[in-house]
Design goal:
Layout lengths: L2 H14 L4 H8 L3 H10 L4 H11 L4 H4 L17 H9 L10 H13 L4 H30 L1 H28 L23
């Protein structure tokens, strides 16, 4: 058993299940710092390895033996930066104060960040597409306000409340490492290559 193989195997099995370090730590009853240390150095007590193997539903030997060269598809990508994902979900709330900031803020954040994180890029597309849909809905509501006030007001309230609720719910989901969902989003930005999101 080498330290490198323990570190590689733990990372491989964690990503295969789509777990964040925090989620695995919670399942195994250890701290997230312990997971980070083991994935960085490979140093771990047998007791800790046993807890991790149980949480991953694998035998302890799977963590200790040298990792085979993968012939199967790569594990589902998991974003390590939950703070960035949560901020991405909450940035559209600026649209309540600054016109069109609901679309521009997450778009500029995505373009500024330009990370290699496929989960962040996929979620950024979802957020921007949904906020574009909300903007179209609000535009239609304003048009209806001028011609038929009750319907326009109802649509305006529905779009605003729905955008607020989905931003807050998805910020919480992103923090927990769960897949975010934005229904009724116009596919304005291409989805790019298929990537996984946190489980």
């Amino acid at each position: 058993m080498t330290s490198d193989s323990v570190a590689q195997n733990l990372l491989l099995h964690r990503l295969r299940l789509g777990l964040t370090q925090e989620q695995l730590a919670e399942r195994a009853g250890v701290t997230a710092r312990t997971i980070q240390r083991i994935e960085a150095t490979g140093a771990a007590h047998l007791t800790t390895l046993t807890l991790l193997a149980t949480a991953l539903a694998i035998p302890v030997q799977a963590l200790q033996t040298p990792a085979p060269t993968p012939k199967s598809p790569a594990p589902t990508p998991v974003s390590a930066d939950r703070h960035a994902l949560v901020l991405l979900q909450l940035l559209p709330l600026l649209g309540a104060v600054v016109p069109f900031a609901n679309v521009l803020a997450p778009l500029f954040y995505w373009l500024h960040r330009r990370s290699d994180d496929p989960v962040f890029a996929a979620q950024a597309r979802l957020v921007v597409n949904f906020q574009l849909s909300v903007t179209v809905g609000i535009g239609a509501a304003v048009g209806l306000l001028l011609s038929y006030f009750p319907a326009g007001l109802g649509l305006l309230m529905l779009c605003s409340a729905g955008a607020l609720a989905l931003s807050l719910v998805n910020a919480r989901r992103a923090w927990r490492g769960v897949r975010v969902r934005y229904p009724l989003a116009l596919p304005a930005l291409s989805s790019g290559p298929k990537v996984g999101s946190p489980a």
